[in-house]
């Protein structure tokens, strides 16, 4: 049987003695005994109190009594699935962090896990125990932050009560009340800082999850290397150059748009998960009928991201994701695909990503061609202004070509 957990000697102590207690408890739910025992033994050595259960149905019955600090659940089990169980756990105990383990991850499963099960992290089997411990620590950081926030709120309530008492007893103690108010303001400011830091952390986790999903899709089509990171940086260079140009800047091009653009760019080729392996991995140029199938990845990506968008609303960054996945192969003169859009009918975000994608493809080696130089690629793309590419964006590419070359050199294949 294929190992579901990678273990090396540096991550697991050879002894079987239980480590010093860390004060946190973990519930493990998995129908495979070997997995439960491996995870349980490892976490016990790390000092955790562990309860192991073989099914989600059994875990539901034990959840109220156990009330662990963290839940780690497999997805595919007899009876109730991992997502269903975590959704139940989220409804009853929303403050308990949840980790989902699965043999394979796609965009639909990930979005379902986040939307229904409020999953904090997804681990794809097989996973290294060090990666598991990283995920556990990140989840427990939420618990610690909540405990600190609760303590701050408790102290705030206590200070408010003391302040009321002081005001009722003697008006002459108003000066003391002012001192307390200053302390309270300081605590509230500290809380705001912590909340802001936590919000930034959650944004980083969102980008990491999207990056992981996009990397999974890209890995089916090529040795991706730094492709996704380069795509983000190329898009950012063009967008930020226009954002500070008062004469050429579109009215909607603000920092929030640029951030959403760079995040959505990661999804540009997510539709390739729907392309048959025989075409996707063909070591050479595609035949016309094969190329026709390959082009359907744009439509597949558009529909996939659109379904995801329907779950979280039109105002999310996925609105740009829909435009990018579906239209980054459109040509300015209408000879692109899948819709044959012309000129400014092509979404602005897709026009930017089209330039980033072609530049990266031409400067990257393939089984049927060598990587073009920066100069050769720039010449080709300048010639495509007004036919394949938006002329304005090609102007920006020419102006920012050194930045493109620097990104290319920094994030090698």
Keywords:
413 residues, alpha/beta, two-stranded parallel ribbon, 7 strands, 59% helix
| Strand order in space, largest sheet | 3-2-4-5-6
**Average pLDDT level:** 84
Oligomer: single chain
End-to-end C-alpha gap: 34 Å
E-strand count? 7
Radius of gyration (Å): 26 Å
Structural class: alpha/beta
Give the overall form.
globular
* Beta-strand proportion: 5-15%
Largest sheet: 5 strands, parallel
Low-confidence stretches: 7-19
Q: Please bin the fraction of helical residues.
A: 55-70%
Order of helices and strands: EEHEHEHEHEEHHHHHHHHHHHH
Q: Total number of helical segments? A: 16
Description:
- Helices cover 59% and strands 7% of the residues.
- The longest helix has 46 residues, at 174-219.
- Strand 4 (70-74), helix 3 and strand 5 (98-102) form a beta-alpha-beta unit.
- It is an alpha/beta fold and 413 residues long.
- It has helices at residues 33-45, 56-66, 82-92, 107-117, 129-169, 174-219, 227-243, 255-265, 277-280, 288-294, 296-312, 318-327, 348-362, 374-383, 391-399, 401-410; strands at residues 5-6, 25-29, 49-53, 70-74, 98-102, 121-124, 127-128.
- Residues 7-19 have low confidence and may be disordered.
- It contains 16 helices and seven strands.
- The strands form two sheets. A five-stranded parallel sheet has the order 3-2-4-5-6, sandwiched between helices.
């Amino acid at each position: 049987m294929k190992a579901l957990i990678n273990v090396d000697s540096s991550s697991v102590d050879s002894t079987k003695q239980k480590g010093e207690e860390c004060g946190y408890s973990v519930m493990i739910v998995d129908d495979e005994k070997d997995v439960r025992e491996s995870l349980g033994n490892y976490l016990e050595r790390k000092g955790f109190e562990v309860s192991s259960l073989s099914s989600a149905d059994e875990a539901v019955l034990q959840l109220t009594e156990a009330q662990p600090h963290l839940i780690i659940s497999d997805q595919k089990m007899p009876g109730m699935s991992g997502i269903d169980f975590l959704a139940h756990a989220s409804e009853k105990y929303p403050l308990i962090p949840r980790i989902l383990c699965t043999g394979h991850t796609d965009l639909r499963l990930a979005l379902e896990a986040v939307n229904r099960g409020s999953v904090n992290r997804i681990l794809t089997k097989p996973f290294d125990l060090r990666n598991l411990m990283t995920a556990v620590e990140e989840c427990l950081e939420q618990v610690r932050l909540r405990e600190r926030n609760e303590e701050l709120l408790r102290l705030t309530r206590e200070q408010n009560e003391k302040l009321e008492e002081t005001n009722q007893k003697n008006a002459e103690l108003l000066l003391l009340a002012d001192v307390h108010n200053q302390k309270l303001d300081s605590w509230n400011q500290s809380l705001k800082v912590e909340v802001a830091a936590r919000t930034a952390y959650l944004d980083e986790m969102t980008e990491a999850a999207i990056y992981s999903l996009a990397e999974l899709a890209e890995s089916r089509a090529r040795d991706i290397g730094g492709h996704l990171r380069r795509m983000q940086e190329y898009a950012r260079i063009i967008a930020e150059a226009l954002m500070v140009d008062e004469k050429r800047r579109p009215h909607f091009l603000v920092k929030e748009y640029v951030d959403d653009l760079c995040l959505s760019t990661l999804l540009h080729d997510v539709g390739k998960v729907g392309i048959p392996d025989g075409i996707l991995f063909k070591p050479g140029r595609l035949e016309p009928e094969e190329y026709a199938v390959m082009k359907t990845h744009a439509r597949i990506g558009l529909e996939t991201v659109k379904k995801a968008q329907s779950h979280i609303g039109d105002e999310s960054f996925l609105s740009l994701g829909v435009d990018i996945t579906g239209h980054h192969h459109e040509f300015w003169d209408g000879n692109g695909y899948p819709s044959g859009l012309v000129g400014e009918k092509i979404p602005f975000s897709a026009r930017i990503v089209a330039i980033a994608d072609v530049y990266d493809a031409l400067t990257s080696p393939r089984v049927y061609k060598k990587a073009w130089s920066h100069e050769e690629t720039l010449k080709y793309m300048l010639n495509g202004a007004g036919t394949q590419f938006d002329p304005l964006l090609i102007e920006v590419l020419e102006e920012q070509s050194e930045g493109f070359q620097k990104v290319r050199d920094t994030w090698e294949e």
